[in-house]
Amino acid sequence: MTRQVKRAFKYRFYPTGVQAAELSRTFGCVRLVYNKALEERTRAWYGEQRRISYVQSSAALTAWKKTGDLAFLAEVSSVPLQQALRHLQTAFGNFFAQRAKYPRYKRPERRPPTVTTGVWPRRPHVRPLGGRRVKPASSSKQM
């Protein structure tokens, strides 16, 4: 029987001002999509006793991108936005399975931001932003 060794790597990068602004904008859009989808699901359940699936949330995201007020969502990568909807779907799955409380709205200071860059296959990877070098966390200063 062979044993499989699992490894994990932790990276820290130092973005330029332009990259930091783009990341901040992306995280803000992710938070907006998560909160708006949570609001839609809550309204549909309490107002109409209707459940909204991930597929319906994804279709709503496409519609939001086409509206005038939320057109800026089309300017950021769609991967983090879709991942926010997947996280919300998982949160509701855990809630209905009684493993967690009802999902909460996300505030900017709730937790440090994370981004999954590779969704398919389901192994996330870290990519450098704008050609900046990515350093392993063990060789950088502690946060």
Q: Can you walk me through this structure?
A:
With 143 residues, this protein is mainly alpha-helical. It has one domain. It contains three helices and two strands. It has a two-stranded antiparallel ribbon with strand order 1-2. Helix 2 (54-66) runs antiparallel to helix 3 (78-96). The termini are far apart. Residues 120-124 and 139-143 have low confidence and may be disordered.
Tell me the layout of helices and strands.
Blueprint (H helix, E strand, L loop, with lengths): L10 E2 L4 H32 L5 H13 L11 H19 L38 E2 L7
Antiparallel strand pairs: 1-2
Helix pairs in contact: 1-3, 2-3
Observed structural traits:
2 strands; 143 residues; disordered C terminus; mainly alpha; two-stranded antiparallel sheet; globular; 3 helices
Q: Can you count the beta strands?
A: 2
Number of distinct helices = 3
Largest sheet: 2 strands, antiparallel
Please indicate the percent range of residues in DSSP E strands (runs of 2 or more): under 5%
Distance between the amino and carboxyl termini: 40 Å
